[in-house]
Amino acid sequence: MVELLKKMEKTSKKYSIKINASKSKILIVDRANEKGNQHDKKINGIEIGIRSLIYLGVRIINTGDCENEIRCRITLVKTAIVKLTRI
Description:
This protein has two helices and six strands. By secondary structure, the protein is α+β, with helices and mostly antiparallel strands. The chain is elongated. The N and C termini lie far apart (54 Å). The mean pLDDT is 77.
């Protein structure tokens, strides 16, 4: 991963393209990382590693666990069903 980041940074400098590190994020899904240790990933000294993100409406966390997302969706469905019974 580090080699890929270095290659991306080198190529962007070659073509005079600036990578906006404040908008660039990397999520490393790693079940061994369950204790909350985040891998350090940096571009130009700015940390871009994150612990979770929302992609297409789904929360993805770095441990690969989806229990919270499932509970959230069940709650949304229950709320929608309660609203339907009031009609």
